[in-house]
Structures are given as C-alpha cells and as structure tokens.
Amino acid sequence: MEVFVLIIRFLLSGVFAVAAVGKLADLKGAEKAARGFGVPGWLARPLAYGLPIAEIAVALMLLFPEVSFFGAGAASLLLISFVTGMAYQMAKGNAPDCHCFGQLHSEPIGAAAIIRNVLLLLAAAFLVVRGIDGQGVALANDLRETIMILGIAVSMMAAFAAILVAVAARAGQQKLVRRIEMLEILSGEDVSIDHDEAVDPNNGLPIGAPLPEFELAKVGGGSLASRSLTDSGRPSLLFFVGPDCKPCASLYPEIEKWSEEFGSGIDLWIVSRGDAESNLAKFNGSLTDRLLLQSEREAADLLRARWTPTAILVGPTGRIASNPAVGDNLIRELMDKIRIRIDKFADGFIDVRVGSASGRKSFVGKLIPEFSVEDIHGDRVTDADLKGREALAIFLAKNCGHCTRMAEEIVRREEEGHPNARDLFVFSDTDLETLKSYGLSARVIYDPGFELGKSFGMYGSPSAVLINEDGRIVSESAIGQPNIWALRAETGGIDG
What we know:
Elements: H1 2-24, H2 27-36, H3 41-61, H4 65-91, H5 111-130, H6 143-171, H7 173-186, E1 215-218, E2 223-225, E3 236-240, H8 246-262, E4 267-273, H9 276-283, E5 291-294, H10 298-302, E6 310-314, E7 325-326, H11 328-341, E8 372-374, E9 380-382, E10 391-396, H12 401-415, E11 424-428, H13 432-437, E12 443-446, H14 451-455, E13 463-467, E14 478-479, H15 481-486
Parallel strand pairs: 3-4, 4-5, 10-11, 11-12
Antiparallel strand pairs: 1-2, 1-5, 3-6, 6-7, 8-9, 10-13, 13-14
Helix pairs in contact: 1-3, 1-5, 1-6, 2-3, 3-4, 4-5
C-alpha cells in the first residue's frame, strides 16, 4: 500500500507539473481560456498567472509525505473548480478551450476532459482520506537528501519548460514574426493584433463577407433560403440557439422585446436545431413564425457560430455586418450598438463590433485613397484601376511564410483561370526581386512600410479588404487565407 500511495502522489505531481509548465509557456492562451470560461476581464490575467503557480506548489507538495496531505487537499479544490466550470459551460451549450495543459495540449471542453479531471480528483481525494500520516514513504532520509530531491524536481520542471517553449517558438515562429511586423507597421495607431483571433470561437466570417447560401426549414412549414433575407431591403439579425441551451431560453423573452422595439427596421430570425416539438417547448411565443431549424449545424458552421447563444447581424445587401456576439452579455452589447446606429444602416455600409473587436478602427464605407504608383514591372497603377468592378486588395508582408503561401495560392488560381483572379491587387513591402519571383499576373505594388496599405485599413498579414465598384471599402481587414477568400464567398488555401 505504501508503494501504491507513492505512485499516486507522483502521478498527481507529474500531471500538475506538466499542466503548470504548459500554461507558463502560453500565458496569453491561459488568459484567453479564462475569459472563455466567463472570468471577468479584470480577473482573467491574474488568474492566468496565478493558476500555474498554484499548480507548481501542489506538484512540489505532493513529492513529500510531510506536506502531501495539504497538496492533495489543494489539488482536490482545484480539480473540483475545473470540473464545475466545465460542467457549467457544457450545460450552457458552450465549448470553450480548456487550455488544461497550455502549450502542450489544448482542446475544447467535453466529456473526455471532465472524466479525466474526475479521475484525478478521485486520486487526490484518496490521499486526503488517508490523512496527514498516511501519505506513504519518503524519498529522503534527511534534510540534505530532501533539498537534493527538491532541486532535481525544480531543475526538471525548468528543463521541461525550456524544451516546451523552444518547440512552441519553432511552431509559431512565422506567427510571431507577423505580429511584430504589424506592430511596427501600425506604429501604435491601432490596437495590437493577435492573429489567433482569426480562428477564435468569438470571431466568425469577416465583416463584409457575403452571407453563405443555405436553406432552413420553418417550424410552421415551408423553408427560408439565406438569399431571401435581403428581399425586404432591411438588415437581418440571426440568433443561433439550441433546444438544450438554458441561457438561450432565458434570453428568448428579450429577443421578443427587441423584435417589438425594432419593428420593421430589422428582421429577427431564430436559428435552432433538432425537432420542432423540442424547440417550441423552449421558444414558443410571438416569434414562432421566425423560428428556423437546422438538421445539425449546417448554417451555424457556415457562419462560424460555434457557441449558443450567438447573434450575427447581416446587412441589407447580404453582407456580414457584425462579428459574432457570443453569450447574453455580448448580445446585449450588440443590441445597444444597433440601437444607436440603426439610422445609419440605410447606406448598407454596416460595421458593428462587440467585445475584443470593438477597438479596431473601421474603414467600412470609406473611399480608397487617391494614389498613382508603379507596379513591380514599371506600369502605372492608380486608384481608378480598383474601381468599376469589385476588387480585392491583398497585403503580403516580408519574412512571412503565410504570405508566401498566399502568393502561391494566387498563382495557382491564375493558372487555373479563376474568374476573379484578374481583380486582385497585391500590396507588399517585400523586396522587388522576391515579388517578381512569385510570378504573379495580378498587379503587384511595392509598398514600403505599407504607407498605402494602412490607408486601406490593412490590419495583419496576409490580409485583404474588399472594394466595391465605386471604390469604397466594404469589408474589414480579413486576416489569413480562409478569411480572405471568404470575402468572395470562396474557399481555398490553408493559413495556420
């Protein structure tokens, strides 16, 4: 039994040590995970720093029988909080990233994560039940050996942390270079960019992207095609909910009030999944005729509405007009901003942002700047060349591996005769020889320091903005290949 207790102690100690080191290697990810679990912004950062420190303390205490009981008690409290937080989020229909092992391993919460933590909790509870004097054999016979073991343990953790950080740095080298470049380019004029937001659950299709095509069944019979949402000439607001989502049911009375408030100014639609009976039990009221059903998550996946409840605004021209408002608080924030700006929606240039995206300067609706420059082949390019049809201005930065792959994807499309390939304009600060080596047929403009790019609303690399035939910017700066091609309702390319 003594050996078994020793094994349990070392197993728990190793798990907590690995979890702590993983989080320390990605503190920003830990902070983002805390926010995903609903931790207030002012508390998220202290928690991100404090949690791995607490886990290291638990790991060290479990090594020594004299204090193992207290370490097991602390481990139990931490694990109970983990399991409770996960279960609560799952009950709400959410799936935030657990970030359990930080940079080493991170995944959306699910049954597997809860089961793993419950098993660890049982092991910690076993040690607690055994009491202070039942923590098994000691590894050291005197103080000298204890200090030696403690030193070895700390050294191993430090070595593991160094290896983990090196691996993470190698895997994210291009991403880090891109962030640094953009901070230099923006020169403090905008908030700093975190490229991870391109795939964050709180960020969906870029503002300005066309609404994807889908068709959903109406609870009362018939169906609704997404393209018909613009028939009324009014903006549409899509609420993604679920029959098993308790916050969605709690929010429904407010959605009904918003529908009455905005009247004919905005069309509200509720998009759920499952059968009509279970949905009517939750959402039976004045908006029953506005209740649409997915077979699974086909519409939600197309609009990247990963959680419930989520609200997304669609402009009268059929373009995405807001980033996803995830959760009841951000949905209320979105409604407040719509309430303030609704009188300005008539022109169709709508850009409503909530949450962390609110700090970005909007260029939607602005005319592109006047310019006259030479492209890499010496031909004159002016702002007039970007007018007369829908154009895509793409920004590629030097020393950016993702930008190189973006250039390769553009070349592939040109070679395959893609119909929109001729309407691409590339701005880059890469040296002329490298730009020529890409072999692009598109007009390529050497833009040192992205002096032109910044005036287009450039925000990241590779990125792009969509320009209408009148020379007005109709999208936010879409970052990464998937988002760039989404501006044209196209797919293609992989941007990590």
